[in-house]
Amino acid sequence: MSKLSFDYSRFDRIEDSDDEDKHHPNLDKGLNQRVIRITRDRKEEEIDTEKKKLEEAGKSEEAEKLEKKRPLHINNMCQVAEERTIINSASGRRDRLVKDSESFSVNEYQEFKIDHESLLEKFTHANWEQSHDLLAKHGDILLDDNANNYFLLTTLDEEMAGNKERVQKLSTQGQIISQIHQLAKPMNRPPRDLVHRFFERFESDQAQAAFQEGVDHFLGHIQKRAVQKKAEMEEEAEKEALINEAKEHGEPVPLIEAMHEMKREDRLGPGGLDPVEVFAALPEELQNCFKSGDVEMLKTVATNMDPEVFQKHWDAILGSGLWQQSG
């Protein structure tokens, strides 16, 4: 029997946290999140544009290598071609349209976990026969792309937490789901149609050994990614310590250059003012304060400038989000 082939390289690029929660202490949080989100989206657009050029030039191998460099996060892990899926379940008939390259949102994934927590946990602890039965009865849920992502991300989380027994269970059950998807893909069939065929295919001892090899391969990549992620978290913790230190001293970090590339409506601050326009209207001495991040210079400028003039500029600075007022 031929073995199924799986590509695990994408696991090396998994990001299980949302960088939008990280922001400079003196920049308005909402504005900073929009800067990060739009910058990330623009990088993805650049990859898409370059990939399209390579494909049009017949350089498919280079295009594939470029795609493998794309960082993965929860919003871009599930991408499928346009299709209409008709699902028959005990709760009735559901019709879902999935558009080309449309990614599931974080909210949808979180809602999926909450709505189906009991079933996901039951499947996690199921044996081989019970898994077959659960997939036959609840394939509309367990073979959903969100379920595939659940077992992938939860396995990574548990590996980082050192819960080895749970990691083994999640890996095995996640691979059942993943390999059914892999079996269905070249046939262009819904994964649920291949549930019985999958379990029939892996009945023999030899087939079970091949399946376990896939689980072990998956575990190896998860363990490698967990080590990398821990190192990244330690590095991030060091950066966070520096940010907290900066917060104590009130040191600003200008993001004017990044904001220039954003649409005006996307960069408006909490007071509805455009930070780029506000910055351009500031006197040179105030601009230099933001460029250098020198708080003492800012204090000196404030002392030497006419109080009413400084207050006018300062109100605009706060309203544009160039500075986040404490308290």
Could you explain the architecture of this structure?
The chain has 15 helices and two strands. The chain is elongated. With 327 residues, it is mainly alpha-helical. 64% of the residues lie in helices and 4% in strands. The protein has helices spanning 29-56, 60-68, 106-115, 117-124, 128-142, 145-161, 164-184, 195-201, 205-249, 256-260, 264-267, 275-281, 284-292, 295-304, 307-320, and strands at residues 83-89, 92-98. The chain has a two-stranded antiparallel sheet with strand order 1-2.
Strand content: under 5%
CATH architecture of the largest domain: Up-down Bundle
Distance between the termini: 67 Å
Could you tell me the CATH topology label of the largest domain: Methane Monooxygenase Hydroxylase, Chain G, domain 1
Average pLDDT value? 75
Shape assignment: elongated
Percent helix among the residues? 55-70%
Number of helices: 15
Q: Any idea how many domains?
A: 3
Largest sheet: 2 strands, antiparallel
Q: Supply the helix-strand structural class.
A: mainly alpha
Side by side, the strands of the main sheet go 1-2
Report the uncertain regions: 1-11, 16-27, 77-104, 250-254
* CATH class category label of the largest domain: Mainly Alpha
Kindly provide the radius of gyration, computed on alpha-carbon positions and rounded to a whole number of angstroms.
25 Å
Please give the number of β-strands: 2
The H-level CATH homologous superfamily of the largest domain, spelled out, is Cdc37, Hsp90 binding domain
